Inverse folding.
């Protein structure tokens, strides 16, 4: 299928889905898998229409990012004239399971870093290339491509050893009430899962579909962009992307979902 | 409602948002979001924050609109709005269960009654963390808006109203 034809089909299906954006008022549907660990992917809290878009490889707009990511992967950039593929082959095997372990502590710097920061470190250290802008299309293409190589594999972040203090900090942030609305993550995503906040069905708040295509913005979004959105709703001061607090929070939230199968690219309203 | 009163209500209904729109020009504009002192007696704030009764029609608009956003969490007898949250209690008939003073305290600062409640304080500026600079030092609703909501909610005395 030609790129243009595929793009038009994406656009048409997206418009149709937005027009019919009337989420059904129902708990997670009966076919939701029951797991011993009690985890439920956000997929099951999305409307049937949204789930259908995620499931269809011809209509999931996130796959455009994954496809572009595959091209960027082998595109040389920077003074070293290297691409990601120069060191990591086509990424299909070398990246399988890698995204599942982020955020993780960077041994060289001792800092907790997310996947986007890892991509940029690679670019600077090994490609002699400029870092890609946070939340930019090229960076989301690459993080989507990398996470997609772990599709179907369980989330598996490490929280002990050097990660332990970051984990504890993230846990404290998750439970801290913030903003004029005075809300903590846990008040909705642990204590009120399955309830409705206006038309929004409250999920367990997992990261196994990120970067996720957000129909409301017409773009993929990183976990940190999603945190900013929650902060904005609570009228709390959003932190910059890659802020250490957001990395710590991301580690804690990723750990809550350890074991959930990765779905990148997920689609949400 | 007498014809005169409904005429006034209509004027308020259509001119109110326009005037509000003129006032809400920015954070420094003449929007009254300063905290005025009030007295809590038992589980009530018996006296109006403005010294005058609120307008129930404006109160309904605040509840249904983005400013009060009551519908985010509560079912209410506002059938023209499709989506009602179910975080808090259904407010149909709330006026038969709570006095205006009790409603006022629950809007102003419900944490005085239950520190763990998820219900935000809509007329408070203290005890909050990392508030967005735009909203810092301002109450979520004005004293007038609180009174309009109290007037509206106090009038929801019919338990039989089906919201959906």
């Amino acid at each position: 299928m030609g790129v243009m034809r595929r793009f038009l089909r994406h656009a048409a299906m997206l418009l149709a889905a937005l027009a019919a954006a009337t989420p059904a008022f129902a708990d997670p549907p009966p076919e939701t898998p029951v797991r011993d660990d009690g985890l439920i992917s956000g997929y099951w809290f999305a409307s049937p229409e949204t789930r259908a878009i995620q499931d269809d490889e011809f209509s999931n707009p996130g796959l455009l990012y994954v496809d572009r990511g595959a091209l960027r992967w082998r595109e040389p950039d920077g003074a070293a004239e290297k691409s990601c593929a120069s060191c990591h082959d086509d990424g299909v095997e070398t990246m399988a399971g890698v995204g599942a372990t982020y955020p993780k502590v960077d041994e060289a710097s001792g800092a907790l870093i997310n996947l986007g920061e890892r991509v940029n470190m690679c670019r600077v250290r090994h490609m002699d290339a400029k870092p890609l802008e946070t939340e930019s299309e090229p960076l989301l293409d690459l993080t989507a491509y990398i996470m997609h190589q772990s599709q179907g594999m369980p989330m598996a972040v490490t929280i002990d050893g050097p990660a332990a203090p970051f984990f504890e900090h993230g846990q404290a942030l998750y439970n801290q009430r913030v903003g004029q609305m005075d809300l903590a993550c846990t008040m909705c995503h642990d204590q009120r899962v399955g309830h409705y906040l206006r038309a929004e069905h409250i999920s367990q708040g997992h990261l196994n579909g990120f970067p996720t295509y957000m129909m409301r913005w017409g773009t993929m979004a990183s976990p940190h962009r999603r945190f900013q959105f929650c902060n904005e709703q609570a009228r709390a001061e959003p932190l910059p992307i890659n802020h250490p607090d957001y990395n710590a929070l991301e580690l804690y939230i990723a750990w809550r979902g350890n074991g959930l199968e990765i779905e990148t690219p997920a689609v949400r309203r | 409602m007498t014809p005169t009163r409904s005429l006034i209500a209509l004027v308020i209904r259509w001119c109110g948002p326009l005037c509000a729109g003129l006032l809400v020009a920015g954070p420094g504009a003449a929007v009254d979001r300063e905290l005025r002192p009030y007295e809590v007696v038992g589980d009530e704030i018996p006296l109006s924050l403005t010294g005058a009764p609120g307008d129930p029609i404006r109160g309904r608009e605040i509840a249904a609109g983005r400013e009060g956003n009551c519908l985010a969490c509560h079912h209410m007898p506002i059938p023209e709005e499709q989506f009602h949250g179910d975080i808090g209690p259904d407010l149909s008939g709330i006026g038969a269960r709570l006095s205006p003073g009790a409603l006022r305290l629950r809007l102003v600062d419900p944490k005085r009654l239950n520190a763990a409640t998820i219900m935000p304080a809509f007329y408070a500026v203290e005890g909050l963390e990392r508030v967005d600079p735009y909203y810092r030092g301002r109450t979520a609703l004005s004293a007038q808006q609180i009174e309009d909501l109290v007037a509206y909610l106090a009038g929801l005395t019919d338990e039989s109203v089906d919201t959906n």
Summary: The CA atoms of residues 120 and 131 of chain A lie 5 Å apart. The longest helix of chain A spans residues 3-19. The two ends of chain A are 27 Å apart (CA to CA).
